Amino acid sequence: MTALPQLAVTRADAPTRFLEVRGLRVHFPTDDGLVKSVDGVSFGLERRRTLGIVGESGSGKSVTSLAIMGLHKGGSARISGEIWLDGQELVAADQETVRLLRGRKMAMIFQDPLSSMHPYYSIGAQIVEAYRIHHNVSKQVARRHAIELLDRVGIPQPAKRVNDYPHQFSGGMRQRAMIAMALSNNPELLIADEPTTALDVTVQAQILDLIRDLQEEYGSAVIIITHDLGVVAELADDIFVMYGGKAVEYGTAADLFARPEHPYTWGLLGSMPRMDRDVRDRLIPIKGSPPSLITLPSGCAFHPRCPYAELDGIPCKTVVPTLGEGDRHGVACHIPPPKRRELFATDIAPHL
Amino acid sequence: MSTSSPAATESLLEVTGLEKHFPITRGIIFRRRIGAVQAVDGIDFFVRTGETLGLVGESGCGKSTTGRLVTRLLEPTAGKVVFEGRDITHLSVGQMRPLRRDVQMIFQDPYSSLNPRHTVGTIVGSPLRIQKIVTRQEVKRAVQELLELVGLNPEHYNRYPHEFSGGQRQRIGIARALALRPKLIVCDEPVSALDVSIQAQVVNLLDDLQNELNLTYLFIAHDLSVVRHISDRIAVMYLGKIVEVSSRSDLYARPFHPYTLALLSAVPVPDPARRDRAQRERILLTGDVPSPIDPPSGCRFRTRCWKAQEVCVTDVPPLRELASGHYAACHFPIDDMERSAGSRVAARAAAAEIAQDTASEPV
Questions:
Q1: Burial letters for A225-250: b for 16+ Cβ neighbours within 10 Å, e otherwise?
Q2: A-chain residues within 8 Å CB-CB of B248?
Q3: Which residues from chain B sit within 8 angstroms of residue A212, using beta carbons?
Q4: Measured between CB atoms, does A168 come within 8 Å of chain B?
Q5: What is the pLDDT of residue B32?
Q6: CB contact under 8 A, A209 and B284
Q7: Interior CA angle at A317 toward A313 and A320, to 5°?
Q8: Model's pTM, two decimal places?
Q9: With contacts defined as CB-CB under 8 Å, which chain B residues touch A253?
Q10: Which ipTM score applies to this complex?
C-alpha cells in the first residue's frame, strides 16, 4: 500500500450507516498479471442486521471480508475505495489503528478452525490473549471470562476444556471455540467466512443457531460469506451476490429468493437441488466455468455464460453494467427490468 | 429403473454383515493391539442393476470405507461382498484385476486423484492399456471418444491436469472410470469439492451417462439434497451402521429413524419465507458423533436420541422392514403423529435436553 496521510477521523461525507463500503477495489499484482479480486464493490450494513455475501470460489467474497478486517495491509495488495466502520475510514488508516479495532470493533470467524487456531497454545490461552489485548485485566479474570464464553457457546465442562489444545476438540467444538474467541470483546461487527462449510449438516444447524442467538444477544452486525444459498436464506436479512469481483445483484433475502432478476442468480438457484421441492428431472446448470480474474471478459463478466447475452441488441460485451444507486433491489444487468421480470416468470420460475 | 421386488438374483451387488475394523496398535517392536476403529460394523445392503443407491451420513460414519470395501481397495474384516453372484470378499489383487472392468470408482478430490505428471491421454487411457482391451494404436482414439462423452474437448488429449478447472478435472476422473465400460461405479462424494454451478453440470452428466450406458451407481455423499436428486434408493449410515434404507420418496416423506428425522430437519431451507417455521421444527442434536473406537452399547444413536429408553442401551436394534421396502434399525420408530409440526417442536425441546456425553469425546 502506498503511504497515505492519516485522515481526520470524521469527514464531511462520512456515512450514517454502521458499516459502509464504497467502491472497494483489491488488486493483486502477480507474475501472470493483475488479479482484480474485488473490483468496485459498494454496500452498507446497519447494527443488528445480517448481510449475506454469496458467490462461487474466486468471486472475491473472502477478499472483500479480509479487506474490511484490514488483513491485506502490509501485503502486496493494492486497495482503493473507502471502508467506513462506525464513522471511521479504514482503507487509509494505518495498520496500528486497524489492529486496535480488530477484535474489539470487528471480529472474524474463519472457515477452517484447525488451521486458524494456533496448535501450540491451549484454547483458553488464545481466548485470554484476545481479551487482554483490549482489556487491562489480570490473567485470572480473563481466564474466568474465557470459561464463561466457552460455556455460552455450548462447550461442555468449559472449566476443564479451557486447558485443551485445538487438536483435542472435534470440528464442531473447534468452530464453537473460534466463535467464543471472536466474541471475547463483544465486537460490533462479526464477519463469518464460510463458518459451516467444513462441518456436517447437524453440526452446521447447531452453529447457525448459535450465531443467530448470539447476534440477538449482543446486537452486532453480521456479514456471512458462503457459497451455500441455503445457509444465507437461514441467516441473512440482505443478500449480495458476487461474480468475478463485482456485485451482480443486491436485495433483501425475501426479494432475492422470490424475485431474483440477474441471470447469474437464476443460474445459482437452478443449479441447486432443493429438499423443499419435488425432485426435478434435471438440474439447470450454468454453462462454462467461472472466469479468470486476470483476463475478465469485457463488459458484463457473466456474458460468456449468460443465456440471454446480447438479447435484443443490449451491449453485454462492451458496457459494464452497474447495480444502480440507492435501489433496494439492485441488478447489474443490461436486460431492461420489465423484460427481466417477464423472463423470470416465463422461463425460470416454472423450473425452480 | 427397476421397481420390481428385491429378489436376490437381480441385484448386481450384495453386501452382508460387512465389517471393517482398523486396528490401533502401540509399541514399536512388539506391536500390541489395543483397540480398533470400528469404521464399518456389520452392514447389509444390495444394489439392483441400473439403479442408484445413495449412501448418506456425516463424516466418520463409514460411508467412504464402505465404498472402498465394495471396490476392494480395502480388505474387509468380516462379512461378504457378492458381485454378480460371485463372492469377491477376499480376492487377491491379481484376481480382482479382471473384475476392475466391471467395478470402477470416482473419487472426491479431483486435485489429488489425478497424477499431475501424466497427460489426460495417459490418465484416461491407462485402464485400457492395463486391461489390454484395445491395441496401442487404438488407445488414442478410444480416449478421445471418452473425452467427448464426458463433455471435454478431445483435442486436450495432451494436456496436463493442472491446465483444467475443478469441474473439468472431475470429468477426467469420470472418463477414466468409464473407460472399461463398467457395470457398477462407486462415486465417493463426486461433486462435494465443486462450485454450485459446476456441481449441477456434473450431476446432470452422471445422470445422462447412466441412461446412456445403463450404469449402476453407489453414490456416496453427505449432501442430502444432491443424494435426493440422484438416487432411487437411499441408505442412511450412523457410526458404522446402516440405520435406515428406503426408496427416495419414502425416506424424505416418512423417515422412521430419529436420526434420519434430525438429519433431514437440519438441512437449511433456501427459502427465507419458511425460515422461521423450519427453525422452530428443527431438531438440533446435542454434542458430536461418539468415537468409533468405543461406540455406545445397544443402539449407537441412543446417546443423542430423545426417544432412548432402557432397551436401547442393552439391545442392538435390527434393521426391520417397517413398510414395504422401507427398513429402519430402531426400537421406537417415528410414527405419523410425531412427524406433525407440534410434535417436532416438542422433539426439538426434548433433543436439546440431552446432556452431552463428554466421556466419549476425542482425547
A1: bbbbbbbbbbbbbbbbbbbbbbbbbb
A2: 279
A3: 279
A4: yes
A5: 85
A6: yes
A7: 105
A8: 0.88
A9: 272
A10: 0.84
